Amino acid sequence: MKKILIAAMALFSATIASASDNSLWEKSTLNEIITRGELQVCLEAGYMPFDMRDKKGNIVGFDVDIAKSMAKAMGVKIDLRNTAWDGIIPALLTSKCDLIISGMTITAERNLKVNFTDPYIVVGQSILLSSKLKGEVTSYRDLNNAKYKIATKLGTTADYATKRYMSKAKINLFETESEGALEVINGNADAFVYDLPYNAIYSAQNEGKVVHLDTPFTYEPLGIAVRKGDPDFLNFLNNYLAQIKGDGTYDKIYQKWFASNSWLKNVQ
């Protein structure tokens, strides 16, 4: 009798666990994407070479190609949803998209609100410097002085890094990267602090107008953000990133956007 009872309890527990697993899968974003037939991606077009618009108005870039490759692997269409940076996490949390892939640095503060995949690329902060200060300023430490004006983008890790490492300087915050960088060229700021990839491209476009101090002074892993409580989706994304890094797909995309600047002529 005891053995029968134990067997019955085990069967009952297995049934409950199976029902629970099915319930989790039905609620998974991954299941919703497959059922819908479309991957909805939040990003902010304006961060070269990750997310930007070409001359035809299409959103293109490193992140975009990874997202398109992912949608193809899922067998679904893709919907790129351009979203202002200050509202991009709220958009994800209110299910206006399935994930965020937009050059987003993994931070503890953000991780309290969303879950992140393993890093798909690592970048850091660098400095675009006024050509007038060439030789006078050689690192971020030199800019930690009240006589300097520094521009950066509001609400980004560049914003936090500038306030942390250059707190003595006058810091001006802007809504977009291009606005902040332009302040240096126009003589309204001594330096612009932002992610290395963007600064490298911007300095190449404005050779002679700015000096790029291209040694990163922070370590910043970028990840894909998803809503919490969805292990199936997070598992898929991490495995997918590992797969494309192993089969050459990632390297092909990386070389396109970071090892060449031929795409510059096609962007706005």
Task: Report on this structure.
With 268 residues, this protein is of the alpha/beta class. The chain has two domains: 161 residues, Periplasmic binding protein-like II (D-Maltodextrin-Binding Protein, domain 2); 94 residues, 3-Layer(aba) Sandwich (D-Maltodextrin-Binding Protein, domain 2). Helices cover 42% and strands 20% of the residues. It is built from ten helices and 14 strands. The strands form five sheets. Strands 10-9-11-8-12 form a five-stranded mixed beta sheet, sandwiched between helices. The N and C termini lie far apart (77 Å). 37% of the residues are buried. Keywords: Signal. Belongs to the bacterial solute-binding protein 3 family. This is Transporter substrate-binding domain-containing protein. One of its GO terms (molecular function) is ligand-gated monoatomic ion channel activity. It is found in: Cell envelope.
What is the CATH level 1 assignment of the largest domain?
A: Alpha Beta
Write out the strand line-up for the largest beta sheet, numbering strands in chain order: 10-9-11-8-12
Domain count, please report it.
2
Poorly predicted spans: 5-19
* Main sheet specs: 5 strands, mixed
Structural class, please? alpha/beta
Average pLDDT taken over every residue: 91
CATH superfamily of the largest domain: Periplasmic binding protein-like II
CATH architecture term of the largest domain: 3-Layer(aba) Sandwich
Distinct helical segment count:
10
Strand content bin: 15-25%
Instruction: Work out the helicity level.
Output: 40-55%
